Amino acid sequence: MISRSSIRDSLIQGLKHSPGVALLGPRQCGKTTLARQVAQEQGARIFDLENPEDAAALENPILALESLRGLVVLDEVQRKPELFPILRVLMDRPDLPAKFLLLGSASPFLVRGVTESLAGRVSFIDLQGFSLDEVGAGEQGKLWERGGFPRSFLATEESLSHAWRRDFIRSFVEKDFGSLGLGATPSSLGRLWQMTAHYHGQSLNASEIGRSLGESYKTIQRHLELLEGAFMIRMLRPWFENLGKRLVRSPKLYVRDSGLLHALLGIGSHDALLGHPKLGASWEGFALEQILWKLPRVDAWFWGTQGGAELDLFIQPGGRRIGFEFKVSDAPRMTKSLSIARDDLKLEELIVVKPTGAGYHLEDRIRVMSLKDATAYCGELTH
């Protein structure tokens, strides 16, 4: 069993200070396993809304929930959004006889009831698949290749991991996404998701994707927002500042889990990954997700100019201006783009992140780090 103690501790702390906690993340990322561990410790009542018996028990939610004491867990809560106004009433009781742990596979902007009914009552915790901190630096290559979904990462053979990911993609497109009632047909969503893998690490051009798929620009935008809300893709927004330069204004598109990216691209082995044209983009997305996992409360952007200068990740923790560039090379070198990004954005520090090895300085305020050291550095930024 791989320990997820940091998320567990955040969950326990959230329940101490709020009437409810929403643990959000993609399907199969480990939310239920973690919640059941906490529930067992606290003697909680669990309702799984994918279980017909539990769903039927909540047909009269006031009757089912009002008399409960202690911790109440509601799994896959996005399936029953009509619960949220009831939960607001229960969370507003003065003596707080029960607290609620809500597990969901859709972000708050998809499940509007979370933000509209439970604002100020629920603290949000995001959970992804396994992180580098959780599996250890010695498993970095495996984590990159297979992604962080527990069943993919822990599979006894690479072929079984790849097969699980292919089955997950098919199930998500044909069943899971439709259960959210969001209107995208499986065939159109499947084609779009496949295409996002080929645009991974690039600026979004929704019109171009729409022409390729025979869909309108607005349809592509809406379906991408749905994929983003279900934690399958990330659209990293550009940073704007009046610098007197023409800046890139379209978001960059990433498949959030590197294992799913590789499955969508048909990459089934380590050798295939090393020889694939998307190797650099795959590393960029993987390393970016590991950095952002260490900075859950920090807003993030990328930056780029029409002249070609760019920075993969820009953050401002505590008002400090920090940049990251991700290079799959073992020995990244100084480039003009790094110099422009450092100076134009007035960066306190620019970190070039490579897979492994010792770090070194390139120039003033620009240094190279391994991903392991870069994630440790990010941990220091938040303290």
Numbering strands along the chain, what is their spatial order in the largest sheet? 9-10-11-12-14-13
Strand content: 15-25%
Distance between the termini: 28 Å
Structure annotation, total helices: 18
Which shape, going by the Cα principal axes? Answer: globular
Question: Number of folding domains?
Answer: 2
Low-confidence stretches: none
Characterize the largest beta sheet: strand count, sense, and whether it forms a barrel: 6 strands, mixed
Instruction: State Rg.
Output: 22 Å
What is the number of strand segments?
A: 14
Summarize the structure.
The protein is an alpha/beta fold.
Detailed description of the structure:
The protein is α/β, with parallel strands linked by helices and 383 residues long. The protein folds into two domains: 5-126, P-loop containing nucleotide triphosphate hydrolases (Rossmann fold), CATH 3.40.50; 132-381, no CATH class. Helix content is 43%, strand content 18%. The chain has 18 helices and 14 strands. The protein has helices at residues 5-17, 31-42, 52-57, 61-65, 83-91, 112-117, 132-135, 140-146, 150-153, 158-176, 186-198, 206-213, 217-229, 258-264, 270-274, 279-293, 336-344, 371-381; strands at 20-24, 45-48, 70-75, 98-104, 122-126, 202-203, 233-236, 252-255, 300-304, 310-315, 322-326, 349-354, 360-363, 366-370. The chain has a six-stranded mixed sheet with strand order 9-10-11-12-14-13, with helices on both faces. A five-stranded parallel sheet has the order 2-3-4-1-5, sandwiched between helices. Strand 9 (300-304) and strand 10 (310-315) form a beta hairpin. It is globular. The mean pLDDT is 91.
